[in-house]
Amino acid sequence: MNAQQANGPTARLAAHVANVANASLDARDVEAVRRLLLDNCIVSLWGATRPVAIEIADWTRRFAGSGSSPVLGREWTTEASVAALAHGTASHGFELDDTHNATASHPGSVIISSALAVAAEPGPPVESRHLLQAIAAGNEAMALIGIAAGGMSAVHRGLHPTALYGAYGSAATTLTLRALRRGERMDAGPLTRAWGHALSQPSGLMQFSAEPTGGEVKRVHAGLGAHNGIRSADFAALPSVTAPRLVVEGAYGLAAVLAGPLAEIDLGGELQIHRFSLKPYACCRLFHSTIDALREATDGFALPVDAIADILVSGPTLVAEQHMTAAESTMTAQYSCPYVVGATLAYGPYAYEAYDEDHLRDPRIRAVADRVRFAVDAELEAAHYPEHFASAVRLTLTDGSVRSALVVDSIGTAERPLTVAQIAAKGDGLAAHGLAGAGGRLVADIWSDADDAAALIAPLQRESLLLASARR
User: Fold this and answer.
1) Which of 15, 183, 193, 311 has the least CB density, counted as fewest CB within 10 Å?
2) What does the DSSP assignment read for 398-436?
3) Phi/psi at 298 (nearest 5 deg)?
4) What is the pTM of this model?
5) What single string gives the DSSP state of each residue in 107-139?
6) CA dihedral defined by 411, 417, 421, 427, rounded to 10 degrees?
7) pLDDT tens digits for 57-105?
8) Residue 102 near residue 285 (C-beta atoms within 8 A)
9) Residue 442 pairs with which residues in a beta bridge?
10) Strands 276-277 and 308-315: what pairing?
11) Orientation angle between helical segments 107-119 and 217-236, nearest 10 degrees
């Protein structure tokens, strides 16, 4: 390895992630990972109700028996990368998954999907603490590589960060689990090689955000990130299948070709798991501050919708670029600023069913959506974006009066975190799909003192099988 390779961003990031993988988590870190795991289990169950996740899970039957990793909601097991593809698709299936603001990515859908699949591979039992360490390391890798390579610049270039950056986090999680299971320390060398393979597997273009239909492929992007990361870790063990080392900073590396510009990163301070946002609402994270601003401007949604003549939403340029399309599918509805405002004011922010296909022509929602306008607020964007997805609303009422509100940090962000009870409550609506009480059961499982990671791996599969049985 030459001096450039040894001292560059990729090498420093790999050494840092390896240190995170090998270090015991403190109590605050463990709590954060458990919260992320709980959230992922619940949002995966919601996603598993969606047709795209059902069809992907059924598609995996052709790989049945190829490995020991369970497919979410199915009786068969497969090779880990295939199981992670199905789980990741479900996790990202209903716009409820966690968000890393600085990269606009959804790490949990990739990292936890990978972790649960790889932990189920043959071998000695995985310890619970090692599973949590691997999840923390994967999240650190995905978030920091994304920041170093240009963060949200990738979105503006038309790439979906969850798929683009996800493979690097998945590879870190995979290699960490496999090393710790063998009683070895995680090493930066194999990680760098795996990242070299991940560089040749970018996926997930944002064209889904520019068309009114065809958006369900977005759900698969998280599954692709998980699948590609596990495959990258597999290939890193093949000595003849070499890969480049200057992954982030190379002339044709991640920053130069796909994201950029290359950014300096601080490898000190708290882990990235403490900077994630959890979603209380089933829509793009950009609009969670909009929803909270609507709550403030309408006195807790008490203001009659008919009293509102005009709705002006203001925020970052990205909304104008990618989020003003017509809502012709569940995905585009959850990505559409007018539709999100319409669904929120018509039915409230927690009515997840308002994004189902049978509501897309709902006259109550459409009547409100038709009154929504958007304006880029350059000052707001410069002051807060992308670390904070700030948004403002200005309501002009039928009597000529005006109500305004601005929210910088929405409910569920690191600055205003959800409680464990609030995370668990995201599962309450699953009762309508035949699965009642899932949130409470998952809390009891995830906060157990069991040393064997099986206690953390099995609950999601148990609940997903119950959900699938109820659906039948």
Assistant:
1) 183
2) TTS-EEEEEESS-TTSTTSPPPHHHHHHTTGGGGGGT--
3) -110, 15
4) 0.96
5) HHHHHHHHHHHHHTSSSSPPBHHHHHHHHHHHH
6) 60
7) 999 999 999 999 999 999 999 999 999 999 999 999 999 999 998 999 9
8) no
9) none
10) unpaired
11) 50
